[in-house]
């Protein structure tokens, strides 16, 4: 640090000395005043240099990258991850005969460190260095890539800086951005499993996903057995008669959601037959996506008897297995992903898995499976933090979209006349087919209004 500050303040120091020299050469009697002015100038230069250094360090600028390279060099030297040999028999001093070529790259908060895979002595250490990199660089490891001759570790430097506001989410027909550089392709990796401790931000994150799908023009249904914040949305016109809280209502909603999917499957097969093509999904036929938001799923299941549990699990299992191509999606929220209610690998079928707040090691295993991820704890002042994985990829740190205090989710939906991205062509196609559900036909005829 002191070396950097010295280099930054060096121009101010040289200018001060030059100024003193010129004053002394021309007017020696004014030297004292000139010295005071030069001292003030040099002091101001030191303050400016310190401010520049701190800003660069705090905002992951040039000096952050320099420090990272220094840490990597020290790691190699201090751990003796190089090869040496004696210079000769009479000289016990050693010389380095092999020093690993480690490549460091930094771009848009993404750090990539490449270690050589060249069968040298320390290759095994380079294969297991991910956790050390996280700690040393104060970054989050989110991917490990095997490249030709190298193993690349990809980390996010200070991941909270990639957090976005809920108002910044701009979904499209393919994906939803959850953080800068972290998007969920819900058609490729369908369904979301969200777990979180009380106060961890689970409900706010579900609201962010609900907002995104409504903006996309999706037909959304909400099940909230604990009658918490989501149950209050039943007064919003766009969600009228689509919010359920009682056990009977929720069971009926799940069954009818499944039946809608079965009806669409028949229609989809007929449209495929007429088109004479394969490899298409609901988007190719302008079908409206449908999303079932099921908060506190485990709490609801625990209140059912065995027969009702079997029925509900059967419906949800079919939705999870068949929904992607037909445009039917499930977003399930719970405090703990109990394996009892996710039989036959159902949990592995969720494309997006998010845990919010601090969980036990067993909780992380239930959520993400066995992982060598080093799960760290954030400050109590940080809300909506946790870990996420898409498509079974490496678990990474996650910060849910931030909800400003002035943002009212209820008012946002209340002022929303119609799904913004449900095109006129889609509404017309739904109406002309005449075989959609009553809600589809009503939405199409009314121009998208619920």
Q: Can you describe what's shown?
A:
- Keywords: ATP-binding, Cell cycle, Cell division, Membrane, Nucleotide-binding, Transmembrane, Transmembrane helix.
- The structure is a single chain.
- The chain is of the alpha/beta class and about 450 residues long.
- It folds into three domains: about 1-60; about 85-155, Alpha-Beta Plaits, CATH 3.30.70; about 165-445, Rossmann fold (3-Layer(aba) Sandwich), CATH 3.40.50.300.
- It is about 40% helix and about 20% strand.
- It contains 13 helices and 16 strands.
- It has helices at about 1-25, 30-60, 60-80, 125, 130-135, 200-215, 245-275, 295-300, 305-325, 360-370, 410-415, 425-435, 440-445; strands at about 85-90, 90-100, 105, 110-115, 140-145, 150-155, 175-180, 180-185, 190-195, 220-225, 245, 290-295, 330-335, 350-355, 385-390, 395-400.
- The chain has an eight-stranded mixed beta sheet with strand order 11-10-12-13-9-14-15-16, with helices on both faces. Strands 3-4-6-5 form a four-stranded antiparallel beta sheet.
- Strand 5 and strand 6 form a beta hairpin.
- The protein is elongated.
Query: How much strand?
Result: 15-25%
Identify the CATH homologous superfamily of the largest domain: P-loop containing nucleotide triphosphate hydrolases
Task: Find the structural class using helix and strand composition.
Answer: alpha/beta
Number of contiguous helices: 13
Radius of gyration: 30 Å
What is the second-level CATH architecture of the largest domain? 3-Layer(aba) Sandwich
The helical percent reads: 40-55%
The total of beta strands comes to 16
The coarse silhouette is: elongated
Q: Between the first and last Cα atoms, what is the distance in angstroms?
A: 61 Å
Protein name: FtsK SpoIIIE family cell division protein
InterPro entries: FtsK/SpoIIIE/SftA, FtsK_dom, P-loop_NTPase
Transmembrane segments: 6-24, 31-53
Domain FtsK: 179-365
